[in-house]
Amino acid sequence: MEEAHALLRWKTSLQNHNNGSLLSSWTLNNVTKTSPFAWVGIHCNRGGRVDSINLTSIGLKGMLHDFSFSSFPHMVYLDLW
């Protein structure tokens, strides 16, 4: 759940208001037992921990200083291009 909260905090820091629709799946209501992250661009390992984030070509605008890298100890891939 810490990963979900970290992603939501980062989402609120993004400048592109179109992300509301692009990242509309990013809500706590979309975190379930069987699929912790049914969120656009978020992929989990078998243990339900975020192991990759791929948000390419959706026009994100913002900074990474609000992205809590330490909240994602299992992440091996990050693509924001």
Quick summary:
This is Leucine-rich repeat-containing N-terminal plant-type domain-containing protein. By secondary structure, the chain is α+β, with helices and mostly antiparallel strands.
Q: Could you characterize what this model shows?
A:
Pfam families: LRRNT_2 (PF08263). InterPro entries: DNA_repair-toleration, LRR_dom_sf, LRR_N_plant-typ. Residues 3-45 form the Leucine-rich repeat-containing N-terminal plant-type domain. Keywords: Leucine-rich repeat, Repeat, Signal. This is Leucine-rich repeat-containing N-terminal plant-type domain-containing protein. The protein has 81 residues and is of the alpha+beta class. The protein has one domain (1-79): Ribonuclease Inhibitor (Leucine-rich repeat, LRR (right-handed beta-alpha superhelix), Alpha-Beta Horseshoe), CATH 3.80.10. 20% of the residues lie in helices and 14% in strands. It has helices spanning 2-13, 19-22, and strands spanning 42-44, 50-54, 77-79. A three-stranded mixed β-sheet has the order 1-2-3, with no helix packed on it. A hairpin with a 5-residue loop joins strand 1 (42-44) and strand 2. The model has no long low-confidence stretch (mean pLDDT 82).
- Which stretches are low in confidence, meaning pLDDT under 50 for 5 or more residues running? none
Name the CATH superfamily classification: Ribonuclease Inhibitor
Structural class: alpha+beta
Number of domains: 1
CATH architecture descriptor text: Alpha-Beta Horseshoe
CATH fold-level assignment = Leucine-rich repeat, LRR (right-handed beta-alpha superhelix)
| Number of alpha- plus pi-helical segments | 2
Q: Approximately how much beta-strand content do the residues carry?
A: 5-15%
Q: What is the spatial order of strands in the main beta sheet?
A: 1-2-3
- The succession of helices and strands, N to C, reads HHEEE
Report the oligomer: single chain
Distance between the termini: 26 Å
Number of strands: 3
CA-based gyration radius? 12 Å
Give the mean pLDDT.
Answer: 82
The description of the largest β-sheet is: 3 strands, mixed
What share of the residues lie within helices?
10-25%
Name of the CATH class = Alpha Beta
Backbone shape: globular
Protein name: Leucine-rich repeat-containing N-terminal plant-type domain-containing protein
Keywords: Leucine-rich repeat, Repeat, Signal
Pfam families: LRRNT_2 (PF08263)
